[in-house]
Design a protein that fits this description.
The complex is a heterodimer of chains A (about 230) and B (about 350). Chain A has about 230 residues and is of the alpha/beta class. Chain A has eight helices and twelve strands. Chain B: It comes from Sulfitobacter litoralis.
Chain lengths: ~230, ~350
């Protein structure tokens, strides 16, 4: 058997992950054609590279089909119930920083805190006859956060992309999304609630608690982790 | 573990017991229109119920409980008074704990009766209590109506009372609001700044929430800032009320004491006392029955009076074996102009069999 390492299959996340491992003496690379998701590992034996969409890596870790995987804290916590029983963080990789936040129009000068959002949601529902809509793709995290902080009278609406535009398009009144610099938010005349930080996320190397290993795998894992820390 | 057919047989025997009390058997559909449930419970219900959809009827939910369809059915064409019973599956989506069942059998009893509410409360409780006879369970009772009366009686603005009332079921925000109204926590800096300037809006106005709504809220915030702080006495009375946790006779005497300084709760306390008598008349040992003023605050929002629950004394890991309460306001919300006092309770035969097997 081999230790299977899952890495995002494209883009900046893949490149930065490759760089991070290279700096620790392990060369990861894609093999074959541009379109083929095959990879090779040099610098350690017994490790194979699996290229996957970052969004699928949490599920693969939880199912034990990969032993290690690189993906964001946000995706792990959104997609896995009881995530800490299924996976364990090994290293934070210090890139892919993103905060999951709640944002509202800048013009809402009366709304700066969750307490304000809750009061505005109540008044909005009275006036419009439906709940204040928050557009997001992080349903579970946002719902848990708003429940624990006691915000009521909102509804989550699904938005898988261009979430910042939903308010202008009047399909939502507020959004919950990830942001790194806040530039897109500002460009869309939105502001972050002062206590609206749901989660700080960054690219993280995770270890599956569910994947089977034989003695050789365990030795490989120990050697690999020793070289990474 | 009991088999499914054993659980269904147990549920059928409970339903027969309720039927013998004069209840009509009802079988609401498993698929329920999502809109009513969402309107009542908001986003919380999405975390708890399975949603499905088709192109014609839109979103449907696998029934998360029976009470709502039974109330709708009764309000549409029920007899008056009426008693109903049912047994069957309910479905609960689980997001956090994989050990909790996502599908289980419930048997229940609901009473719609304009007559003596204390007697109806006692009827439901005593029936369920009797059906659990011999099992190691402990009962807790409470009354959301007392809390609502206490909030309604506070010497403060209508908008503050409405905000507290809205969050009775969210103890954390309720407490935060109370602390701010009492002047214990300062106004957030952003709000102080907003009220200090003219609240000019420089950013472009986007979205459905209008300038008028923003200005209305600023005016409300200004009015609230001018409102005197809630007195320390009132806050400590309210907190003392929330802390009442005693056997029924002791709780009632504590509540009577509190009512001297909080006359607004007097009627609600009298209702608890009347209920105690009705329960005793039905043979319930009220001397040892617990009453907790905070009981029921974190569960479903529709209870607005009597609430009760039976937990397994020897198995704290098990969910509540039976629960119920009074939901007069729900009949008003779903009644399209009509309303009727209503109280009911549900039992989980699967858990009952598990408890029996463990004895």
């Amino acid at each position: 058997m081999t230790i299977k390492l899952g890495v995002p299959s494209k883009g900046r996340l893949m490149e930065k992950t490759f760089e991070w491992f290279a700096a620790r003496g392990i060369t990861l690379q894609r093999t074959g054609s541009e379109r083929e998701y095959a990879g090779a590992v040099e610098g350690i034996d017994g490790v194979s590279l699996i290229l996957l969409s970052a969004g699928e890596i949490p599920r693969e870790l939880a199912a034990g089909r990969i032993h290690l995987g690189v993906t964001g804290t946000d995706l792990v916590q959104e997609k896995l119930a009881l995530w800490d029983q299924l996976v364990a963080p090994v290293e934070e990789l210090a890139f892919g920083h993103a905060d999951l936040i709640i944002a509202v129009p800048q013009a809402w000068v009366d709304v700066d805190t969750l307490d304000d959002l809750d009061a505005a949601a109540s008044a909005f529902r009275d006036k419009h006859g439906f709940r204040l809509r928050i557009a997001t793709k992080y349903h579970r995290l946002v719902r848990e956060f708003l429940r624990s902080t006691g915000v009521a009278d909102y509804a989550l609406v699904d938005s898988q992309g261009a979430t910042e535009g939903t308010i202008k398009n009047e399909t939502a009144e507020a959004i919950a999304d990830i942001t790194s610099s806040g530039e897109t938010l500002r460009a869309n005349h939105l502001k972050i609630l002062s206590d609206g930080l749901i989660l700080r996320s960054q690219a993280t190397l995770w270890r599956s608690r569910m994947a089977d290993m034989d003695d050789a795998d365990r030795a490989t894992m120990t050697a690999l982790l020793a070289g990474l820390s | 573990m009991a088999t499914r057919s054993e659980i269904l047989a147990k549920a059928a025997s409970l339903r027969a017991l309720f039927e013998a009390q004069g209840a009509a058997v009802v079988e609401p559909p498993i698929l329920q229109p999502a809109e009513t449930l969402l309107d009542l419970y908001g986003e919380d219900i999405r975390a708890r119920a399975y949603v499905t959809s088709d192109a014609m009827r839109g979103e449907q939910m696998l029934r998360p409980d029976y009470t709502l369809p039974v109330v709708q059915m009764h309000m549409a064409h029920g007899a008056d008074p009426a008693r109903y019973t049912y047994a069957g599956e309910v479905f609960r989506r689980q997001e956090r704990d994989p050990n909790r069942a996502n599908e289980y059998i419930q048997a229940g009893y609901e009473v719609f009766d304009r007559g003596d509410p204390a007697a109806a409360d006692a009827e439901v409780f005593a029936l369920i209590h009797g059906a659990l006879d011999g099992l190691p369970v402990t009962a807790v009772t409470g009354d959301i109506g007392i809390l609502m009366a206490a909030v309604a009686g506070l010497d403060t603005s209508a908008s503050r009372k409405a905000a507290l009332m809205r969050h009775i079921w969210r103890p954390r925000r309720f407490r935060a609001l109370l602390d701010r109204y009492a002047g214990k926590t300062p106004m957030p800096a952003s709000r102080a700044a907003l009220l200090a300037n003219d609240g000019a809006i420089t950013a472009p106005l986007i979205g459905l929430r209008s300038l008028d709504e923003i200005e209305t809220r600023i005016a409300a915030l200004r009015a609230d800032a001018a409102e005197p702080a809630l007195s320390r006495t009132q806050v400590s009375l309210l907190l003392a009320l929330l802390d009442v946790r005693e056997t029924m006779p002791n709780a009632i005497s504590q509540l009577h004491d509190l009512a001297v300084d909080m006359p607004a709760i007097s009627d609600a306390v009298d209702r608890v006392a009347a209920r105690e008598k009705a329960l005793a008349a039905r043979g319930v040992d009220t001397e040892n029955l617990m009453f907790e003023a905070s009981f029921g605050r974190v569960s479903m929002e529709y209870y607005d009076g009597f609430v009760f629950g039976f937990r397994a004394a020897t198995r704290p890991d098990l969910p509540t074996i039976a629960t119920g309460g009074r939901y007069d306001a729900l009949t008003r919300r779903l009644g399209q102009g009509g309303e009727i006092p209503a109280v009911g309770g549900v039992m989980r035969p699967g858990l009952m069999l598990e408890l029996e097997a463990g004895q």
